[in-house]
Amino acid sequence: MKLIFEKSCGGHRLDLLPPCDVPVKSYPDELLRKKTLLLPELSENEISRHYTKLAGRTFGVNDGCYPLGSCTMKYNPKVNETAAALPGFTKIHPLQPESSVQGCLHALKLAETLLCEITGMDRMTFQPAAGAHGEFTGLLLIKAYHEHRGDFGRRKIIVPDSAHGTNPASASMAGFTVVSIPSGPDGCVDLTALKEAVGEDTAGLMLTNPNTVGLFDKNILEITKIVHEAGGLNYYDGANLNAVVGIVRPGDMGFDVVHLNLHKTFSTPHGGGGPGSGPVGCKALLAEFLPGPTVEGDGPYRLETPEHSIGKVKAFYGNFLVVIRALAYILTLGREGIPDAARYAVLHANYMKAELSRDYDMACPGLCMHEFVMCLEELKKQTGVSALDIAKGLLDDGIHPPTMYFPLIVPEALMVEPTETESKETMDEVIRVFRKLKERAVREPEAMHELPLTAAVRRLDEVTAARHPKLKYEAETE
Ligand SMILES: *Cc1c(COP(=O)(O)O)cnc(C)c1O
Question: Is the entire prediction scored with pTM above 0.90?
Fold first, then answer.
Protein backbone atom coordinates (compact mmCIF):
# COMPACT_ATOMS: atom_id res chain seq x y z
CA MET A 1 0.00 0.00 0.00
CA LYS A 2 1.24 3.46 -0.88
CA LEU A 3 2.11 6.00 1.79
CA ILE A 4 0.15 9.22 1.86
CA PHE A 5 3.29 11.05 0.64
CA GLU A 6 3.55 8.71 -2.33
CA LYS A 7 -0.09 9.31 -3.19
CA SER A 8 0.42 13.04 -3.03
CA CYS A 9 -0.28 14.88 -6.25
CA GLY A 10 0.68 18.53 -6.63
CA GLY A 11 -2.33 20.82 -6.73
CA HIS A 12 -4.82 18.42 -5.11
CA ARG A 13 -5.39 20.32 -1.95
CA LEU A 14 -7.84 21.59 0.60
CA ASP A 15 -8.02 25.30 1.27
CA LEU A 16 -10.07 25.75 4.39
CA LEU A 17 -8.47 28.91 5.74
CA PRO A 18 -9.82 32.30 4.62
CA PRO A 19 -7.32 34.83 3.27
CA CYS A 20 -5.29 36.55 5.99
CA ASP A 21 -6.89 39.85 7.06
CA VAL A 22 -4.21 41.04 9.52
CA PRO A 23 -0.73 42.42 8.77
CA VAL A 24 1.76 39.63 8.08
CA LYS A 25 4.85 39.86 10.26
CA SER A 26 8.07 38.38 9.02
CA TYR A 27 10.38 36.30 11.17
CA PRO A 28 14.15 36.73 11.46
CA ASP A 29 15.93 34.99 8.64
CA GLU A 30 17.68 32.42 10.83
CA LEU A 31 14.30 31.14 12.04
CA LEU A 32 12.96 30.59 8.56
CA ARG A 33 12.85 27.14 6.99
CA LYS A 34 15.39 26.76 4.18
CA LYS A 35 13.58 23.99 2.34
CA THR A 36 9.89 23.98 1.50
CA LEU A 37 7.86 21.91 3.93
CA LEU A 38 6.86 18.64 2.35
CA LEU A 39 3.16 18.13 2.93
CA PRO A 40 1.07 15.58 1.06
CA GLU A 41 -1.40 17.11 -1.35
CA LEU A 42 -4.64 15.20 -1.68
CA SER A 43 -8.32 15.96 -1.98
CA GLU A 44 -10.68 15.26 0.91
CA ASN A 45 -12.07 12.25 -0.94
CA GLU A 46 -8.59 10.76 -1.45
CA ILE A 47 -7.65 11.31 2.20
CA SER A 48 -10.85 9.68 3.38
CA ARG A 49 -10.21 6.62 1.18
CA HIS A 50 -6.60 6.42 2.36
CA TYR A 51 -7.53 6.24 6.03
CA THR A 52 -10.46 3.90 5.46
CA LYS A 53 -8.09 1.54 3.63
CA LEU A 54 -5.56 1.78 6.47
CA ALA A 55 -8.27 1.06 9.05
CA GLY A 56 -9.20 -2.06 7.09
CA ARG A 57 -5.66 -3.38 7.45
CA THR A 58 -5.53 -3.14 11.22
CA PHE A 59 -7.12 -5.54 13.68
CA GLY A 60 -9.04 -4.54 16.78
CA VAL A 61 -11.52 -5.93 19.28
CA ASN A 62 -14.28 -4.78 16.94
CA ASP A 63 -12.95 -7.05 14.16
CA GLY A 64 -12.75 -10.35 16.00
CA CYS A 65 -11.52 -12.31 18.98
CA TYR A 66 -8.35 -10.84 20.45
CA PRO A 67 -7.12 -13.34 23.08
CA LEU A 68 -3.80 -11.54 23.69
CA GLY A 69 -2.72 -12.85 27.10
CA SER A 70 -1.70 -10.38 29.81
CA CYS A 71 -3.34 -7.55 27.85
CA THR A 72 -7.05 -8.03 28.69
CA MET A 73 -8.29 -7.00 25.25
CA LYS A 74 -11.93 -6.90 26.24
CA TYR A 75 -14.78 -5.13 24.53
CA ASN A 76 -15.08 -1.47 25.50
CA PRO A 77 -18.73 -0.50 25.94
CA LYS A 78 -19.54 2.47 23.72
CA VAL A 79 -21.35 4.23 26.56
CA ASN A 80 -17.90 4.93 28.03
CA GLU A 81 -17.05 6.84 24.85
CA THR A 82 -20.25 8.86 25.13
CA ALA A 83 -19.37 9.80 28.71
CA ALA A 84 -15.81 10.76 27.79
CA ALA A 85 -17.05 12.90 24.89
CA LEU A 86 -19.30 15.11 27.04
CA PRO A 87 -18.36 18.75 26.44
CA GLY A 88 -18.01 19.35 30.19
CA PHE A 89 -15.06 16.95 30.09
CA THR A 90 -13.57 17.88 26.72
CA LYS A 91 -14.03 21.63 26.42
CA ILE A 92 -11.88 22.58 29.38
CA HIS A 93 -8.31 23.72 29.82
CA PRO A 94 -5.87 22.24 32.34
CA LEU A 95 -4.95 25.70 33.59
CA GLN A 96 -8.54 26.75 34.35
CA PRO A 97 -9.16 27.87 37.95
CA GLU A 98 -10.30 25.08 40.30
CA SER A 99 -13.59 26.85 40.97
CA SER A 100 -14.57 26.49 37.28
CA VAL A 101 -13.89 22.72 37.01
CA GLN A 102 -15.45 21.40 40.20
CA GLY A 103 -17.40 18.75 38.26
CA CYS A 104 -14.22 17.34 36.73
CA LEU A 105 -12.49 17.36 40.11
CA HIS A 106 -15.50 15.53 41.54
CA ALA A 107 -15.17 12.90 38.79
CA LEU A 108 -11.46 12.46 39.59
CA LYS A 109 -12.19 12.19 43.31
CA LEU A 110 -14.99 9.69 42.73
CA ALA A 111 -12.74 7.57 40.47
CA GLU A 112 -10.05 7.68 43.16
CA THR A 113 -12.50 6.64 45.90
CA LEU A 114 -13.93 3.74 43.88
CA LEU A 115 -10.55 2.46 42.69
CA CYS A 116 -9.15 2.72 46.23
CA GLU A 117 -12.13 0.68 47.43
CA ILE A 118 -11.48 -1.90 44.68
CA THR A 119 -7.75 -2.17 45.44
CA GLY A 120 -7.79 -1.67 49.21
CA MET A 121 -5.58 1.41 48.98
CA ASP A 122 -5.89 4.82 50.68
CA ARG A 123 -4.85 7.31 48.00
CA MET A 124 -4.25 7.33 44.25
CA THR A 125 -2.59 9.41 41.54
CA PHE A 126 -3.84 9.40 37.95
CA GLN A 127 -0.72 10.93 36.45
CA PRO A 128 1.04 7.86 35.01
CA ALA A 129 0.11 7.24 31.38
CA ALA A 130 0.56 3.45 31.34
CA GLY A 131 1.29 0.46 33.52
CA ALA A 132 5.05 0.67 33.11
CA HIS A 133 4.92 4.37 33.92
CA GLY A 134 2.93 3.48 37.05
CA GLU A 135 5.57 0.94 38.05
CA PHE A 136 8.26 3.60 37.77
CA THR A 137 6.14 6.01 39.85
CA GLY A 138 5.34 3.39 42.50
CA LEU A 139 9.00 2.47 42.84
CA LEU A 140 9.93 6.12 43.31
CA LEU A 141 7.38 6.20 46.15
CA ILE A 142 9.06 3.20 47.76
CA LYS A 143 12.45 4.87 47.35
CA ALA A 144 11.20 8.14 48.84
CA TYR A 145 9.70 6.25 51.78
CA HIS A 146 12.97 4.55 52.73
CA GLU A 147 15.10 7.62 52.15
CA HIS A 148 12.71 9.84 54.12
CA ARG A 149 13.31 7.56 57.10
CA GLY A 150 17.06 7.94 56.64
CA ASP A 151 17.37 4.36 55.39
CA PHE A 152 19.64 4.68 52.35
CA GLY A 153 20.84 1.08 52.28
CA ARG A 154 17.72 -0.43 50.70
CA ARG A 155 18.75 -0.63 47.05
CA LYS A 156 17.31 -3.97 45.93
CA ILE A 157 13.99 -4.88 44.38
CA ILE A 158 13.06 -8.56 44.27
CA VAL A 159 11.29 -9.69 41.09
CA PRO A 160 10.21 -13.30 40.32
CA ASP A 161 11.49 -14.73 37.03
CA SER A 162 7.91 -14.98 35.75
CA ALA A 163 7.51 -11.17 35.87
CA HIS A 164 6.56 -8.98 32.94
CA GLY A 165 9.68 -7.41 31.40
CA THR A 166 8.58 -3.94 32.47
CA ASN A 167 9.05 -4.87 36.17
CA PRO A 168 12.85 -5.26 36.17
CA ALA A 169 13.14 -2.42 33.65
CA SER A 170 11.18 0.01 35.87
CA ALA A 171 13.11 -1.04 38.98
CA SER A 172 16.36 -0.43 37.22
CA MET A 173 15.18 2.94 35.83
CA ALA A 174 14.20 3.97 39.36
CA GLY A 175 17.80 3.34 40.42
CA PHE A 176 17.41 -0.05 42.11
CA THR A 177 19.32 -3.28 41.63
CA VAL A 178 17.08 -6.11 40.48
CA VAL A 179 17.23 -9.46 42.27
CA SER A 180 15.51 -12.17 40.24
CA ILE A 181 14.12 -15.16 42.14
CA PRO A 182 13.10 -18.45 40.49
CA SER A 183 9.54 -19.77 40.44
CA GLY A 184 8.83 -23.09 42.12
CA PRO A 185 7.73 -26.16 40.10
CA ASP A 186 4.11 -25.11 40.70
CA GLY A 187 4.71 -21.82 38.82
CA CYS A 188 4.42 -19.73 42.02
CA VAL A 189 6.99 -17.87 44.14
CA ASP A 190 9.57 -20.20 45.72
CA LEU A 191 9.32 -19.25 49.42
CA THR A 192 12.78 -20.59 50.27
CA ALA A 193 14.34 -18.51 47.48
CA LEU A 194 12.42 -15.45 48.67
CA LYS A 195 13.56 -15.93 52.29
CA GLU A 196 17.15 -16.17 51.09
CA ALA A 197 16.83 -13.06 48.94
CA VAL A 198 15.42 -10.64 51.54
CA GLY A 199 17.61 -8.66 53.91
CA GLU A 200 18.56 -5.20 55.11
CA ASP A 201 19.17 -4.11 51.54
CA THR A 202 15.64 -5.05 50.38
CA ALA A 203 13.62 -2.04 49.25
CA GLY A 204 10.70 -4.13 48.12
CA LEU A 205 9.13 -6.88 46.06
CA MET A 206 7.24 -6.54 42.76
CA LEU A 207 4.61 -9.14 42.05
CA THR A 208 1.56 -9.72 39.91
CA ASN A 209 -1.12 -11.97 41.34
CA PRO A 210 -2.49 -13.90 39.53
CA ASN A 211 0.94 -14.26 37.96
CA THR A 212 1.89 -14.47 34.29
CA VAL A 213 1.18 -18.20 34.04
CA GLY A 214 -2.38 -17.44 35.16
CA LEU A 215 -2.10 -18.80 38.70
CA PHE A 216 -3.18 -17.15 41.94
CA ASP A 217 -0.29 -17.50 44.39
CA LYS A 218 -1.87 -19.19 47.41
CA ASN A 219 1.08 -18.19 49.60
CA ILE A 220 0.49 -14.49 48.96
CA LEU A 221 -0.02 -13.54 52.64
CA GLU A 222 3.16 -15.35 53.60
CA ILE A 223 5.08 -13.73 50.72
CA THR A 224 4.13 -10.16 51.61
CA LYS A 225 4.81 -10.91 55.29
CA ILE A 226 8.35 -12.12 54.55
CA VAL A 227 9.08 -8.85 52.71
CA HIS A 228 7.50 -6.67 55.40
CA GLU A 229 9.43 -8.43 58.15
CA ALA A 230 12.65 -7.70 56.28
CA GLY A 231 11.67 -4.00 56.21
CA GLY A 232 10.69 -3.91 52.52
CA LEU A 233 7.45 -2.82 50.85
CA ASN A 234 5.27 -4.80 48.46
CA TYR A 235 4.41 -3.54 44.96
CA TYR A 236 1.40 -5.04 43.15
CA ASP A 237 1.54 -5.08 39.36
CA GLY A 238 -2.19 -4.71 38.70
CA ALA A 239 -2.13 -5.76 35.05
CA ASN A 240 -3.87 -9.02 35.94
CA LEU A 241 -6.50 -7.48 38.20
CA ASN A 242 -9.28 -8.49 35.79
CA ALA A 243 -9.14 -12.00 37.27
CA VAL A 244 -9.91 -10.86 40.80
CA VAL A 245 -11.43 -7.37 40.55
CA GLY A 246 -14.20 -6.92 43.11
CA ILE A 247 -13.34 -10.27 44.73
CA VAL A 248 -9.99 -9.85 46.50
CA ARG A 249 -8.00 -6.66 47.06
CA PRO A 250 -4.24 -6.19 46.76
CA GLY A 251 -4.40 -4.08 49.94
CA ASP A 252 -5.74 -7.09 51.84
CA MET A 253 -3.05 -9.33 50.35
CA GLY A 254 -0.38 -7.20 52.04
CA PHE A 255 0.56 -4.84 49.20
CA ASP A 256 1.50 -1.23 49.93
CA VAL A 257 1.42 0.20 46.42
CA VAL A 258 -0.31 -0.87 43.21
CA HIS A 259 -0.69 0.26 39.64
CA LEU A 260 -3.79 -0.40 37.58
CA ASN A 261 -3.98 -0.50 33.82
CA LEU A 262 -7.23 1.33 33.13
CA HIS A 263 -6.76 0.31 29.47
CA LYS A 264 -6.85 -3.36 30.50
CA THR A 265 -9.12 -4.03 33.47
CA PHE A 266 -11.28 -0.93 33.18
CA SER A 267 -12.18 -1.19 29.54
CA THR A 268 -10.49 1.67 27.75
CA PRO A 269 -9.46 1.24 24.08
CA HIS A 270 -5.97 -0.15 24.11
CA GLY A 271 -3.18 -0.62 21.68
CA GLY A 272 -2.24 1.31 18.59
CA GLY A 273 -0.68 3.96 20.79
CA GLY A 274 -3.99 5.31 22.06
CA PRO A 275 -3.68 7.07 25.39
CA GLY A 276 -3.57 4.72 28.36
CA SER A 277 -3.65 5.28 32.08
CA GLY A 278 -1.68 3.60 34.85
CA PRO A 279 -2.92 5.12 38.11
CA VAL A 280 -0.91 4.30 41.22
CA GLY A 281 -2.68 3.61 44.50
CA CYS A 282 -0.91 3.44 47.83
CA LYS A 283 -1.44 2.87 51.52
CA ALA A 284 -1.47 5.93 53.79
CA LEU A 285 2.22 5.52 54.63
CA LEU A 286 3.19 6.48 51.06
CA ALA A 287 0.56 9.18 50.41
CA GLU A 288 2.80 12.11 51.36
CA PHE A 289 5.16 11.18 48.50
CA LEU A 290 2.56 11.00 45.68
CA PRO A 291 3.00 13.15 42.56
CA GLY A 292 1.03 16.38 42.68
CA PRO A 293 -1.49 17.69 42.34
CA THR A 294 -4.00 15.43 44.08
CA VAL A 295 -7.67 16.31 44.56
CA GLU A 296 -8.36 17.29 48.19
CA GLY A 297 -11.52 18.10 50.17
CA ASP A 298 -15.02 16.82 49.53
CA GLY A 299 -16.51 19.77 47.72
CA PRO A 300 -15.44 22.37 47.00
CA TYR A 301 -12.40 20.45 45.80
CA ARG A 302 -8.86 21.80 45.84
CA LEU A 303 -5.75 20.75 43.97
CA GLU A 304 -2.74 20.32 46.24
CA THR A 305 0.71 18.81 46.09
CA PRO A 306 1.57 16.35 48.88
CA GLU A 307 4.21 17.52 51.34
CA HIS A 308 7.11 15.28 50.29
CA SER A 309 5.96 14.68 46.72
CA ILE A 310 8.37 12.88 44.37
CA GLY A 311 7.33 15.54 41.83
CA LYS A 312 5.34 15.28 38.63
CA VAL A 313 5.66 12.25 36.37
CA LYS A 314 3.44 13.74 33.66
CA ALA A 315 1.90 17.09 32.86
CA PHE A 316 -1.23 18.11 34.76
CA TYR A 317 -3.59 15.26 35.79
CA GLY A 318 -2.69 12.39 33.47
CA ASN A 319 -4.95 11.16 30.67
CA PHE A 320 -8.14 12.53 32.17
CA LEU A 321 -10.60 11.17 29.60
CA VAL A 322 -9.31 7.63 30.14
CA VAL A 323 -10.19 8.04 33.82
CA ILE A 324 -13.70 9.13 32.77
CA ARG A 325 -14.09 6.00 30.65
CA ALA A 326 -13.03 3.84 33.62
CA LEU A 327 -15.43 5.69 35.90
CA ALA A 328 -18.31 5.16 33.46
CA TYR A 329 -17.39 1.47 33.27
CA ILE A 330 -17.31 1.03 37.06
CA LEU A 331 -20.58 2.90 37.59
CA THR A 332 -22.44 0.96 34.89
CA LEU A 333 -21.27 -2.44 36.19
CA GLY A 334 -21.65 -1.56 39.86
CA ARG A 335 -20.95 -3.59 42.99
CA GLU A 336 -22.40 -6.81 41.51
CA GLY A 337 -21.24 -6.40 37.93
CA ILE A 338 -17.55 -5.86 38.67
CA PRO A 339 -16.94 -9.22 40.45
CA ASP A 340 -19.17 -10.92 37.85
CA ALA A 341 -16.83 -9.68 35.13
CA ALA A 342 -13.91 -11.30 36.97
CA ARG A 343 -15.82 -14.57 37.48
CA TYR A 344 -16.73 -14.80 33.79
CA ALA A 345 -13.16 -13.96 32.76
CA VAL A 346 -11.95 -16.91 34.87
CA LEU A 347 -14.74 -19.22 33.70
CA HIS A 348 -14.01 -18.45 30.03
CA ALA A 349 -10.29 -19.09 30.42
CA ASN A 350 -10.96 -22.39 32.15
CA TYR A 351 -13.44 -23.47 29.48
CA MET A 352 -10.92 -22.81 26.71
CA LYS A 353 -8.10 -24.36 28.68
CA ALA A 354 -10.07 -27.54 29.37
CA GLU A 355 -11.06 -27.88 25.69
CA LEU A 356 -7.59 -27.11 24.33
CA SER A 357 -5.89 -29.44 26.84
CA ARG A 358 -7.11 -32.29 24.60
CA ASP A 359 -4.87 -31.09 21.76
CA TYR A 360 -2.10 -29.00 23.32
CA ASP A 361 0.23 -29.24 26.34
CA MET A 362 -0.34 -26.67 29.08
CA ALA A 363 2.49 -25.00 31.01
CA CYS A 364 0.61 -25.64 34.26
CA PRO A 365 -2.16 -28.24 34.29
CA GLY A 366 -5.31 -27.79 36.37
CA LEU A 367 -7.48 -24.75 37.00
CA CYS A 368 -6.27 -21.30 35.99
CA MET A 369 -7.39 -17.74 36.62
CA HIS A 370 -8.20 -15.38 33.72
CA GLU A 371 -5.57 -16.74 31.31
CA PHE A 372 -3.53 -19.84 30.60
CA VAL A 373 -0.24 -20.65 28.92
CA MET A 374 0.14 -23.38 26.32
CA CYS A 375 3.56 -24.96 25.83
CA LEU A 376 4.29 -26.05 22.23
CA GLU A 377 7.79 -27.37 22.88
CA GLU A 378 6.83 -31.00 22.26
CA LEU A 379 4.89 -30.12 19.09
CA LYS A 380 7.91 -28.26 17.77
CA LYS A 381 10.22 -31.18 18.55
CA GLN A 382 7.98 -33.62 16.72
CA THR A 383 6.86 -31.55 13.73
CA GLY A 384 9.06 -28.45 13.54
CA VAL A 385 5.90 -26.33 13.86
CA SER A 386 6.48 -23.53 16.37
CA ALA A 387 4.26 -21.36 18.55
CA LEU A 388 4.83 -18.62 15.96
CA ASP A 389 3.50 -20.84 13.12
CA ILE A 390 0.30 -21.61 15.05
CA ALA A 391 -0.13 -17.94 15.97
CA LYS A 392 0.26 -16.89 12.32
CA GLY A 393 -2.19 -19.56 11.25
CA LEU A 394 -4.94 -18.07 13.42
CA LEU A 395 -4.79 -14.88 11.35
CA ASP A 396 -6.28 -16.61 8.29
CA ASP A 397 -9.44 -17.23 10.32
CA GLY A 398 -9.72 -13.65 11.53
CA ILE A 399 -8.45 -14.39 15.03
CA HIS A 400 -5.76 -12.27 16.64
CA PRO A 401 -2.88 -14.41 17.90
CA PRO A 402 -2.39 -14.97 21.61
CA THR A 403 0.70 -13.52 23.30
CA MET A 404 3.74 -15.45 22.06
CA TYR A 405 6.96 -16.46 23.80
CA PHE A 406 5.87 -14.94 27.11
CA PRO A 407 6.34 -15.63 29.99
CA LEU A 408 9.99 -16.34 29.29
CA ILE A 409 10.05 -19.32 31.69
CA VAL A 410 7.81 -21.34 29.33
CA PRO A 411 9.41 -22.52 26.06
CA GLU A 412 7.28 -22.10 22.88
CA ALA A 413 4.62 -20.33 24.92
CA LEU A 414 1.22 -19.17 23.71
CA MET A 415 -0.68 -17.23 26.36
CA VAL A 416 -4.44 -17.08 25.88
CA GLU A 417 -6.81 -14.65 27.61
CA PRO A 418 -10.36 -14.78 26.22
CA THR A 419 -11.79 -12.16 28.67
CA GLU A 420 -15.36 -12.07 29.96
CA THR A 421 -16.66 -10.30 26.87
CA GLU A 422 -16.37 -13.22 24.41
CA SER A 423 -19.39 -15.46 23.89
CA LYS A 424 -19.28 -19.26 24.09
CA GLU A 425 -19.88 -19.39 20.33
CA THR A 426 -16.81 -17.23 19.67
CA MET A 427 -14.68 -19.29 22.04
CA ASP A 428 -15.88 -22.50 20.35
CA GLU A 429 -14.83 -21.06 17.00
CA VAL A 430 -11.35 -20.18 18.33
CA ILE A 431 -11.03 -23.69 19.81
CA ARG A 432 -12.06 -25.19 16.45
CA VAL A 433 -9.37 -23.19 14.62
CA PHE A 434 -6.69 -24.12 17.18
CA ARG A 435 -7.63 -27.81 16.68
CA LYS A 436 -7.58 -27.52 12.92
CA LEU A 437 -4.09 -25.99 13.09
CA LYS A 438 -2.83 -28.76 15.38
CA GLU A 439 -4.12 -31.45 13.00
CA ARG A 440 -2.52 -29.69 10.07
CA ALA A 441 0.77 -29.32 11.96
CA VAL A 442 0.93 -33.10 12.26
CA ARG A 443 -0.28 -33.75 8.71
CA GLU A 444 1.66 -31.18 6.65
CA PRO A 445 4.10 -29.35 8.92
CA GLU A 446 5.99 -27.66 6.06
CA ALA A 447 2.90 -25.77 4.90
CA MET A 448 2.54 -24.24 8.37
CA HIS A 449 5.64 -22.10 7.93
CA GLU A 450 3.92 -20.26 5.06
CA LEU A 451 0.91 -19.06 7.09
CA PRO A 452 -0.90 -16.68 7.00
CA LEU A 453 -2.06 -16.90 3.39
CA THR A 454 -4.94 -14.42 3.36
CA ALA A 455 -4.02 -11.73 5.93
CA ALA A 456 -3.34 -8.16 4.78
CA VAL A 457 0.35 -8.68 5.51
CA ARG A 458 2.02 -12.10 5.58
CA ARG A 459 5.25 -12.84 7.45
CA LEU A 460 7.19 -9.77 8.42
CA ASP A 461 10.92 -9.61 8.80
CA GLU A 462 10.62 -9.00 12.52
CA VAL A 463 14.37 -9.10 13.19
CA THR A 464 15.19 -6.34 10.70
CA ALA A 465 12.15 -4.36 11.87
CA ALA A 466 13.49 -4.48 15.44
CA ARG A 467 17.20 -4.03 14.67
CA HIS A 468 16.93 -1.41 11.93
CA PRO A 469 13.60 0.30 12.45
CA LYS A 470 12.61 2.90 9.87
CA LEU A 471 11.10 5.54 12.09
CA LYS A 472 10.56 8.32 9.58
CA TYR A 473 9.79 8.78 5.94
CA GLU A 474 12.76 9.95 3.91
CA ALA A 475 11.49 12.33 1.29
CA GLU A 476 13.37 12.55 -2.00
CA THR A 477 12.42 16.06 -2.99
CA GLU A 478 13.77 19.32 -1.66
C1 LIG B 1 0.69 -4.89 30.32
C2 LIG B 1 1.51 -5.26 31.49
C3 LIG B 1 2.39 -4.33 32.08
C4 LIG B 1 2.71 -2.98 31.48
O5 LIG B 1 1.61 -2.17 31.28
P6 LIG B 1 1.56 -1.07 30.09
O7 LIG B 1 0.29 -0.37 30.34
O8 LIG B 1 1.60 -1.84 28.81
O9 LIG B 1 2.77 -0.19 30.26
C10 LIG B 1 3.03 -4.71 33.25
N11 LIG B 1 2.87 -5.94 33.78
C12 LIG B 1 2.07 -6.87 33.22
C13 LIG B 1 1.91 -8.22 33.89
C14 LIG B 1 1.36 -6.56 32.05
O15 LIG B 1 0.58 -7.48 31.48
Answer: yes
